[in-house]
Structures are given as structure tokens and as C-alpha cells.
Write a structure and sequence with these properties.
The structure holds two protein chains of two kinds.
Chain A: H1 2-43, H2 57-60, H3 69-75, H4 79-112, H5 116-126, H6 134-145, H7 151-158, H8 173-198, H9 202-210, H10 215-239, H11 247-253, H12 261-264, H13 267-278, H14 281-309
Helix pairs in contact in A: 3-14, 4-8, 4-10, 4-13, 5-8, 6-11, 10-14, 13-14
Chain B: H1 2-9, H2 14-41, H3 45-51, H4 63-70, H5 72-105, H6 112-124, H7 129-139, H8 147-150, H9 157-168, H10 172-180, H11 185-196, H12 198-214, H13 217-222, H14 231-248, H15 252-260, H16 263-298
Helix pairs in contact in B: 2-16, 4-16, 5-9, 5-12, 5-14, 12-16, 14-16
Classes of the chains: A mainly alpha, B mainly alpha.
């Protein structure tokens, strides 16, 4: 009885595969690639617990002794790693907070424009920066900030001030990166908010108008409250990624100048340096392990929260 | 009634003027660096040194472009690499992502949920840079091959789900009917679903192509040979070379040499050559981007 059951279920499986083999074939290439470039590196995280040797590679190297050796190196007496983690969290938090406020404001303003042509043109221009690489952004920034040729310095001189050597002064960079980040992303993310605004039922505004609400009051009492779920969810989802810095921004725009590290070095640039410049697999893999695990927990928790607030809004 | 209401809404107030100005200023801010770089590429080095860059070149020159084109070997080679990677990468990526998206959109398919989870997990968790680098170099031997610039970027969970969602919105009867007529799944996908999915696939094509065109990360990590450097890396290399010369050597000869080469100008001319195609195509493709962002924002 059991044997026939087993046999029939195996037959059933074979039949299913036979019937749908083309569909399974279609999924195969992507699954193989995901295995190679996503799942193998996930498995490769064990290297954080190993004493990496060239001969052994990821899987053949001996375990480190004690098992937390690499993490000890990372967390004990390592101010650089501490600075990188702190910078990642603070800068990303600032990007999320200021960026969200700015994008929402931008979307509200776009929504107020009467002239459709003006709206279309300015909107197109505003998300143009999203489409260029961070290498080019870095050159734009140096065109503005360079000591000799930068247009900001020539403006300062014209106004009678003294030139600032921006690339030697860490204190300006959180603000510079914030501006660059908004410049690059605000036009793009305002589209999402604009989509949400245009989905609001016009009846709300008509009712508000009948009650004598001014345009400003309509924005404050109708648009913003109805926009709130979208804002909250997008913010929560970006908080889930707060441990991951935009490597291009921090590497190309700051030109990877060591003088600026105190304020702009982030986890991703720290790992990159430890891996490629210093070649320290131990510390870089421990940092990466820390980042991956914390990120994973944050993403899952944030998605759960987003789903609680609005059903079906999260990734899963 | 209708006209009255709209006239009421269209009334120009001080607030509205401020909004128009704010939007105008932001747009100008977004455009300004582009104009600055265009002008900068035509500015002589001396003018740039004395006055800084401005929106209109004070002393007009095409020296930067001349220098670039007289040593055009590196540029032509980088252009070839970038174009090849973009075309081949985008094509393969679309085919591969569309295929698995089609599989995932067949709701009745046994095992669909498992494949879905398999893709979803890659969005939530990743091994990070170090294991990825070790896998690519040590086990897959991608270092210094053209594949390093194409293969790692082929599959993206986000694109897969975007296309899958669109396919799911197509009535299932379409699939059933084609099946009854004896069509295979590959035929159904490429002859029926692919054309139907054009709006969303166009968006994914554009984002993918842009990703390949702008990619420098994979070259930075995996490619060292000169002949395989893409445009973005050439741009990076030129920046750091100029920087290197400027910072390392202040001897009069080198400084004189630096003055004769329009350093910043060359850099900016190269930006124009690199970014030019995007800017030129931009007016035609931007509506797809807007649509894509809207579609993507609804649900991943």
C-alpha cells in the first residue's frame, strides 16, 4: 500500500515535470545565476569565521581559533570600524529624514503647478541626475568645489571671502553629501509621491472647498494625511537598508581621500579598503558578516512593520 | 459649474508664485552641473585657473576634444567595451528575467511558490562584497574577462517581480487558449506575452541598459587589464591620474606639462562623451522611466 503510494507520487512528480518541462526550463538560467552570484556568496559568509589562506579558499581554509577571532579584531580597539559604522547610520538617517521631507515637498509643489508644460519640463529635468553614474557626479561636484577652478570658490572670492579647500576639510562633507544625495534622488522619489497624490479622490478637495478651506489648508488637512501611509511605508523600507551605504556616492564623490574619512567613511568603503587595498580578508569578511546579518534582521523587521501598517505594502 | 470651479482653482496666488519659483530653482539646480561641464569642456585651462568655470566659457577652445581624439585609442576601446556590454548584457538579461517571470506568473504551476521564495530571498539577504569577490575571482575565474562586466548583473529579483506582476495581470484564458491550440510555453512567451508586456519590458530594458552603461563597480572589482576597461572606468582613471600628477609632483617641469594639458577640460570633455548618449536619448525615453517608476512603486 505504502509502496504503491510512493510510486504513484513519484509518477505524479515525473508527470508534472514532463507536462511543464518548458516552464521549468525557463526558470533554470536565472536560478543558476542567482545560485552563483547570490547563494554562493551567502554560503561564503562562513569565511568570516576562518583563517583565510590562498590555498584553502573560502571552504578549504581552517577555522579561526577562537572562532570569533576576526570579530575580535574588528570590534576591539578598532576606531576606524567604529567610525565607519557610526557614519553609515548617521548619514543614512540624515539622508532618509531630509530626503523624505524634501521629496514630499517637491511632489506637493509639482502637484500645485497649473501649467502642464512647465510641470512636464521641470519634472523631466529634476530626475535627469538620477540617470548618471556616480563617477560623473563626482566630476560635477569637483567642478563646483575644486580649490582653483570650482565655481563655488570663485563665487566666494567674488563675494570677498576666502577660498575653501573643500577636499581637505571633513567637516563640510556630511552636508555636501546630503545635498548631492537630494540632488540625485529627490526628483526621482517625488514621482512616487506624486503618483500617490494623484490617486487621491477629488471629492475630498471638493468637500474641503465647499467648507471654505484654502489651498494651503487643503494640503495640510487632506493631502498630507492621505499621503501619510505612503510616506511611512517608504521610510520604513529605507530604514531597513540603513546599514548599506551607496558605495558610488561615498567612493566617487569624496574621491576616496583619506583626509575625509572621519566624516564620510562608511561600512561599504571600509570593507572595500580592507579587502582590496589592504587585502585583509579576516577583518573585511567579519565586517561584511556583521553588515549582512544586521541588514537582514532590519529588512525583515521593517517589512513586517510596513505590512502591519498597510496590508500588502511590503516586499513579502 | 465646471469652468467656475476650475477658474477658482487656477487663481494665481502668492503661494502659487512661490511654488513656481521653488520648482524652477530646483530644476535649474539639477541642470546647472550639466551646463557647467559642457561649458567647462570648451574652456581653456588658463581661463579656468584664473576665473574658475562658468556657464559660458570665457575663452573658447576645442583643445580638450582635440587632445581626446588625437589619443582616441583608449576612448574607442572603452566605447567598444561599454557598447558591447550594454547591448549583450541587456539582451541576455531581458530574456533570462522574462523567462523566469513567465514561469512565476503561472499560478497553477507546481513548485511555483518555491521558485518564488528562491528569488525573493536574494532580495532580503546577501553575502556582501567579500564572499562575492572571492567567489567571482577564485571559483568562477571572472577576473579580467568580459564576462565579469556582464554575467554578475544579468539577474535582478526586482526586474523579475516587476515583469511577473504584469504577466499576472494578463487574463489566464490567453495562456489556456494558446495551450489548447498546441503552442509550447516558449512560443506562448515570446510570441504572445512578450509583445503584450511591452510597456513594462520597455521600462526594464531601459533601466537595465542604463545600469550596464553606468557600471564601473564590476570593472573596479574584477577587471585590471586596459583593453577591457569600460568608459566609466576610463573616466575614473583619468581623474585619478590627473589628481596623482597634481598631488605627487610639484616640480616645475611637471607643473608646466600639467598646465599645457587641459586637465579639467579633458575630464569634462570625457564626461560629455560618456554621458552624451544618455542625454541625447533622454527626451525620448524619459516617459518610459516615469511609467516604470509608477508601475514599480505600486508593488515589488
Amino acid at each position: 500500500m505504502i509502496m504503491t503510494n510512493c510510486k504513484s507520487s513519484r509518477n505524479k512528480l515525473l508527470k508534472t515535470i514532463q507536462k511543464h518541462w518548458q516552464l521549468y526550463m525557463m526558470a533554470l538560467p536565472a536560478m543558476v545565476l542567482l545560485f552563483l552570484f547570490s547563494y554562493l556568496p551567502m554560503g561564503g559568509l562562513v569565511v568570516a569565521f576562518k583563517r583565510y589562506t590562498l590555498e584553502g579558499g573560502i571552504f578549504g581554509s581552517p577555522w579561526s581559533d577562537p572562532w570569533y577571532k576576526n570579530f575580535e579584531l574588528l570590534f576591539r580597539n578598532n576606531p576606524d570600524a567604529f567610525i565607519a559604522i557610526r557614519n553609515t547610520l548617521l548619514l543614512n538617517a540624515m539622508f532618509i529624514a531630509v530626503g523624505t521631507v524634501f521629496s514630499v515637498t517637491l511632489a506637493l509643489c509639482f502637484n500645485e503647478l497649473h501649467s502642464q508644460i512647465y510641470k512636464k519640463i521641470t519634472q523631466s529635468i529634476s530626475f535627469l541626475p538620477y540617470f548618471i553614474s556616480s563617477v560623473v557626479v563626482g566630476i560635477f561636484v569637483s567642478g563646483l568645489l575644486a580649490y582653483d577652478t570650482g565655481s563655488i570658490n570663485s563665487l566666494i572670492v567674488t563675494l570677498g571671502g576666502k577660498k575653501i579647500n573643500f577636499y581637505m576639510e571633513p567637516k563640510y562633507w556630511p552636508f555636501i553629501l546630503l545635498v548631492v544625495n537630494i540632488w540625485k534622488g529627490a526628483g526621482y522619489s517625488s514621482i512616487v509621491y506624486l503618483a500617490a497624490i494623484s490617486g487621491i479622490d477629488g471629492a475630498y478637495y471638493e468637500a474641503a472647498e465647499i467648507d471654505g478651506a484654502t489651498r494651503m489648508q487643503q494640503i495640510w488637512y487632506v493631502t498630507l494625511p492621505l499621503l501619510r501611509p505612503t510616506v511611512i511605508i517608504l521610510t520604513i523600507l529605507s530604514v531597513g537598508r540603513i546599514m548599506n551605504a551607496d558605495f558610488g556616492l561615498f567612493y566617487n564623490v569624496t574621491r576616496d581621500i583619506p583626509t575625509l574619512y572621519p566624516t564620510v567613511d562608511v561600512i561599504d568603503t571600509y570593507i572595500y579598503r580592507a579587502l582590496r587595498k589592504i587585502g585583509d580578508i579576516g577583518i573585511s569578511s567579519a565586517t561584511g558578516f556583521f553588515q549582512s546579518v544586521v541588514s537582514f534582521v532590519l529588512v525583515v523587521v521593517c517589512n513586517k512593520i510596513a505590512n502591519k501598517i498597510e496590508e500588502g505594502s511590503a516586499l513579502f | 459649474m465646471n469652468t467656475m470651479k476650475s477658474s477658482l482653482r487656477q487663481r494665481v496666488t502668492l503661494g502659487h508664485v512661490l511654488v513656481v519659483i521653488f520648482i524652477g530653482m530646483f530644476a535649474a539646480m539639477c541642470l546647472y552641473p550639466f551646463l557647467l561641464v559642457i561649458s567647462g569642456s570648451f574652456t581653456t585651462n588658463i581661463a579656468a585657473k584664473t576665473y574658475g568655470f562658468s556657464l559660458i566659457p570665457r575663452e573658447f577652445t576645442t583643445a580638450a576634444y582635440k587632445t581626446l581624439f588625437s589619443n582616441s585609442q583608449a576612448i574607442v576601446s572603452a566605447y567598444k567595451v561599454t557598447v558591447f556590454v550594454t547591448v549583450v548584457g541587456t539582451f541576455l538579461s531581458i530574456v533570462i528575467n522574462t523567462m523566469i517571470a513567465f514561469t512565476l506568473s503561472r499560478q497553477m504551476l507546481p513548485g511555483r511558490r518555491i521558485i518564488n521564495l528562491y528569488v525573493l530571498i536574494t532580495m532580503l539577504f546577501n553575502g556582501g562584497m567579500v564572499p562575492w569577490y572571492l567567489i567571482c575571482t577564485r571559483y568562477l575565474h571572472l577576473q579580467d574577462t568580459i564576462f565579469a562586466l556582464i554575467v554578475p548583473m544579468l539577474v535582478g529579483a526586482w526586474d523579475i517581480f516587476l515583469i511577473r506582476n504584469y504577466f499576472q495581470s494578463i487574463p489566464n484564458e490567453m495562456y489556456e487558449c494558446a495551450k489548447i491550440d498546441g503552442a509550447g510555453d516558449f512560443y506562448i512567451l515570446f510570441r504572445i506575452y512578450f509583445p503584450l508586456g511591452k510597456p513594462v519590458i520597455a521600462t526594464v530594458v531601459l533601466f537595465t541598459a542604463l545600469g550596464y552603461w553606468n557600471d564601473w563597480w564590476h570593472a573596479l572589482m574584477l577587471v585590471e587589464v586596459q583593453s577591457l576597461q569600460p568608459l566609466q572606468m576610463l573616466l575614473r582613471a583619468i581623474i585619478s591620474n590627473i589628481q596623482f600628477l597634481q598631488t605627487m609632483d610639484s616640480s616645475p617641469q611637471v607643473q608646466q606639462m600639467m598646465a599645457s594639458i587641459p586637465g579639467d577640460g579633458i575630464r569634462m570633455a570625457l564626461v560629455i562623451i560618456t554621458t552624451g548618449p544618455i542625454i541625447l536619448l533622454y527626451p525620448f525615453i524619459q516617459r518610459y522611466f516615469v511609467k516604470g517608476i509608477m508601475v514599480g512603486s505600486i508593488k515589488g
